[in-house]
């Protein structure tokens, strides 16, 4: 009989410590340093809540620059997530390490960013369902040409190597890499993230400053 660890998905949330002036910097003109950091904390909490509500497996908070920020300890205590350090390197290197770690402990893993207001538990369940039915990769596209979610049942360094992170070609290059690896790919509906002041108008009420 398979153990519980062998039959569930690992849900990994990537997040930066909410240091004023170092997170959501493009929102500082609209919100100020403290306001941008406060929004970042609300978004991380929202993402972790959606991950927990999905009920597809353990939730891991992958932190940068390390796990030592009091906010991360608070998330660990209140939301019962495990803390992990992203480590050094570009985003691709950090994502690869996270997937290698998760897939050594579970048959599939999903990674999401922490600035996606529309992320829901159902969206995560849909991603997990794609992996359960046999797809090696599932992507939740972002409106800016990147992706808000990526799930894998296997990991290959080539998927993350030399990708222009933050640019408009992330999604298209990742699709081509998956095709070159002969992996079955599923895509979910596109989501939007909060990067620029104009994005603030789309925030749902529960994520606005109170």
Explain what this protein looks like in three dimensions:
Strands 3-2-1-4-6-5-7 form a 7-stranded mixed β-sheet, sandwiched between helices. The model is unreliable at 1-6 (pLDDT under 50). It has helices spanning 4-7, 28-54, 70-79, 91-103, 121-132, 170-180; strands at 9-16, 59-64, 82-85, 108-112, 137-141, 147-152, 185-187. Strand 1, helix 2 (28-54) and strand 2 form a beta-alpha-beta unit. It is of the alpha/beta class and 210 residues long.
Record keyword descriptors for this entry.
210 residues; alpha/beta; 6 helices; globular
Summarize this structure briefly.
It is built from six helices and seven strands, in the order H-E-H-E-H-E-H-E-H-E-E-H-E. By secondary structure, the protein is α/β, with parallel strands linked by helices. Residues 1-6 have low confidence and may be disordered.
Name the shape in a single word: globular
Proportion of helical residues: 25-40%
| Tally of helical runs | 6
Largest sheet entry: 7 strands, mixed
Spell out the blueprint of helices and strands:
Elements: H1 4-7, E1 9-16, H2 28-54, E2 59-64, H3 70-79, E3 82-85, H4 91-103, E4 108-112, H5 121-132, E5 137-141, E6 147-152, H6 170-180, E7 185-187
Parallel strand pairs: 1-2, 1-4, 2-3, 5-7
Antiparallel strand pairs: 4-6, 5-6
Helix pairs in contact: 2-5
């Amino acid at each position: 009989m398979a153990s519980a660890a062998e039959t569930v998905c690992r849900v990994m949330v990537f997040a930066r410590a909410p240091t004023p002036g170092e997170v959501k910097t493009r929102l500082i003109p609209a919100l100020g340093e403290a306001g941008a950091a406060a929004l970042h904390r609300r978004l991380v909490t929202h993402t972790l809540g959606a991950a927990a509500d999905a009920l597809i497996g353990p939730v891991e908070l992958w932190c940068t620059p390390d796990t030592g920020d009091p906010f991360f300890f608070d998330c660990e205590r209140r939301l019962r997530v495990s803390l992990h350090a992203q480590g050094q390197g570009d985003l691709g290197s950090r994502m690869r390490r996270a997937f290698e770690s998760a897939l050594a402990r579970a048959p599939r893993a999903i990674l999401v960013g922490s600035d996606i207001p529309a992320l829901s538990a159902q969206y995560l369940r849909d991603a997990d369902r794609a992996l359960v039915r046999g797809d090696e990769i599932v992507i939740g596209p972002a409106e800016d040409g990147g992706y808000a979610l990526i799930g894998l049942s296997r990991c290959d360094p080539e998927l993350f190597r030399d990708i222009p992170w933050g640019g408009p070609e992330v999604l298209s290059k990742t699709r081509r890499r998956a095709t070159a690896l002969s992996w079955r790919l599923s895509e979910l509906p596109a989501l939007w993230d909060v990067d620029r002041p104009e994005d603030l108008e789309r925030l749902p009420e529960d994520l606005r400053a109170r």
